[in-house]
């Protein structure tokens, strides 16, 4: 059940476009492919690797965002804007057994268009952790939410593929 590498951070912003433009213009990240989550999100890349995900934050976030990722903070300024830390991992069933043996609660999600099966859990400080596994490892599992099952809310960056 090893973690393979740090995958990305998700930052929530009250102005996703302005934030995206800053990271592109100032730091040189590249806008790239973003799966259709049916809520506003951009994925920014260094080379071929998405490293920063941006989405709407604050009190008026998308219902689909709440349904899929949740929201632990309404902050859009300061360090409270980091919604979660993601790791690529392997051995999904081993990780689930490991969590169950330790009474660690988690939720299951699936981004079928990207081939990811995800576990979300919280560290002792309330920081959300996302673990991403290949869909092939999810045989026999059914997630609580699949991104493709969410209804399109028609909000800007929400359903664009870059």
What structural keywords apply?
single chain, 162 residues, alpha/beta, 2,3-Dihydroxybiphenyl 1,2-Dioxygenase, domain 1, 3 helices, 9 strands, 17% helix, 35% strand, Glyas_Bleomycin-R_OHBP_Dase, Glyas_Fos-R_dOase_dom
Structural features, described:
This protein is α/β, with parallel strands linked by helices. The protein has one domain (3-148): 2,3-Dihydroxybiphenyl 1,2-Dioxygenase, domain 1 (Roll), CATH 3.10.180.10. It contains three helices and nine strands; from the N terminus they run βαβββαβαββββ. It has helices at residues 16-27, 63-68, 92-101, and strands at 3-13, 30-31, 41-46, 49-56, 82-89, 107-111, 116-122, 128-134, 145-146. The protein has a nine-stranded mixed beta sheet, with helices on one face. The longest helix is centred in the N-terminal third of the chain and has 12 residues, at 16-27. The chain is globular, with a radius of gyration of 15 Å. The relative contact order is 0.23. The model is unreliable at 157-162 (pLDDT under 50).
- Could you name the ranges where pLDDT drops below 50 across 5 or more consecutive residues? 157-162
Please indicate the percent range of residues in DSSP E strands (runs of 2 or more).
Answer: 25-35%
Distance between the termini: 32 Å
Structural class: alpha/beta
Give the helices and strands as they follow along the chain.
EHEEEHEHEEEE
Categorize the overall geometry: globular
The number of helical elements comes to 3
* Most strands sheet: 9 strands, mixed
Could you say what the CATH architecture is?
Roll
User: CATH topology, anyone?
Assistant: 2,3-Dihydroxybiphenyl 1,2-Dioxygenase, domain 1
Can you tell me the number of structural domains?
1
At the first level of CATH, the class is: Alpha Beta
CATH homologous superfamily title: 2,3-Dihydroxybiphenyl 1,2-Dioxygenase, domain 1
Q: In which order are the strands of the major sheet placed? A: 2-3-4-1-5-8-7-6-9
Helical content stands at 10-25%
Rounded radius of gyration (Å):
15 Å
């Amino acid at each position: 059940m090893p973690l393979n590498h740090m995958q990305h951070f998700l930052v929530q912003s009250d102005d996703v476009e302005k934030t995206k433009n800053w990271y592109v213009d100032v730091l040189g990240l590249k806008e790239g492919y973003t799966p259709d989550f049916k809520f506003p999100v951009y994925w920014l890349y260094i080379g071929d690797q998405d490293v920063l995900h941006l989405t709407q934050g604050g009190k008026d976030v998308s219902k689909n965002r709440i349904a899929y990722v949740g929201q632990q903070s309404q902050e859009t300024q300061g360090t409270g804007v980091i919604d979660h830390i993601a790791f690529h991992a392997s051995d999904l069933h081993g990780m689930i057994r490991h969590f169950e043996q330790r009474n660690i609660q988690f939720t299951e999600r699936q981004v079928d268009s990207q081939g990811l099966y995800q576990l979300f859990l919280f560290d002792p400080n309330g920081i959300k952790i996302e673990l991403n596994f290949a869909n092939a490892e999810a045989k026999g599992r059914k997630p609580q939410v699949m991104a493709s099952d969410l209804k399109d809310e028609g909000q800007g960056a929400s359903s664009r593929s870059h």
